[in-house]
Amino acid sequence: MSILKKLNNISGLQLFQISRFSSFLFISIIFTKSHLTLSEIGLFELLLFFASAASYFWVTGLIHSFLPLYKNNNTFLFKEENKSPELFNAFILLCFFSILIFIIGLLIKKDLSVFGYKGKVPFYFPLLLYILLSNPAALIEYIYMLRNKPDKIISYGFLTFSLQLVLVITPVLLGYGITFSVWSLVFVSALRMVWLIALLKKYAVFKISFPFLLEHLSLAIPLIISSLLSGSAQYIDGIIISNKYDAASFAVFRYGAKELPFVVLLAAGLHSAMLPEFSTTKKLKESLKTIKKKSARLMHILFPLSIVVLLFSKWLFTAMFNENFSRGADVFMIYLLLVCSRLLFPNTILIGLKKTRVVMLASIINIAVNVSLSLIFLEKYGLVGVALATVFAFLLEKQILILYNYFALKISPNKYIPVGLYFAYTIVFLTIFVLIDHRIIFIM
Predict the structure, then answer these.
(1) Which of 229, 183, 176, 189 is nearest to 56 (CA)?
(2) Which residues, 6+ apart, have CB-to-CB distance to 282 below 8 Å?
(3) How confident is the model at residue 442 (pLDDT cuts 50, 70, 90)?
(4) pLDDT tens for residues 204-215?
(5) What pTM does this model have?
């Protein structure tokens, strides 16, 4: 417990993200070692794909736009010491969007067509329930963060994701199919909703404010669009692959199209935790120094780690899964390159300062480049080409935001990016990548 007390919000969110990813990673590994067929695994991955694709953008947009508004908005001028009306209104918006997606899903009546399925998607109703229950619960870790309780973030993450892992894999280990595993995801999501309601009773004022909802939405809509566009890279890749290949190939791509977990999770934790710090210009100088220091620390950890994983990626990928997934290693190697864009945080500054429209415009450019290059590279290089297009698009988006910060806000990259360190690590990483995979020379 003494270790937990020494943690801060940044490390708490980072460890939470790691716990969540680890749970699904272990599920994937165990499934590949079990009696399940490649097609059955592909159906489970398809369910997770649909659930995330239908909700990730508005969940991200609503939560990230809410963080700068917490105790810094134009609606609630008088804040209660122990309870916040902002929390309840953020919960209302998350529930509204979740119910809307649920209703739309019921109206569609399984009218989808992927991998040869027409009009009937397996596990359709539990998929809708999972979407309905899991998305509002995403607010829990951020309530703990805003209340400055990083130890609670970690305890909550460890408990719920450990339970999820046990409940999902146990039916498969006992020889059953994936039906019980799918319903286990729904059950754990229901438990998280109960947890969230208990937290709201403790920390929130149950008071609906339409002015605050409008203020929240005005900031969130550009960010929702941005998340839909820029953050949809993996889903766009999946859609493109699903229209050209079968379920087995889709599973191979999905297993390969994974970034090094520590890169995404630690970077996301730093991004989310720093958003409230940039909500006012009064602390801008101090916040810029903080994010520069924290990002430099991440570079010292994540670039060397990415290089080591790159060197042993083919062996690691086959050892973790099985020979049927060996093709996914090539895709995985390309996705490792995303570390070069993940460790740049110009978007954190802009979102914190509530300039979400700029982030949206950069995302529009991202998606246009991503789709165009994906279609071009797919014909020439197959699965690997689609992954490479994503890397190019993400780097371009970050560069656009860096330029905006510099010219419009007069914030030099040196103030929040350890520039020399970043370029040194990037050059070394790209050199090793080219030496390992000579095909990149012909692609570029």
Answers:
(1) 229
(2) none
(3) very low
(4) 999 999 999 999
(5) 0.83
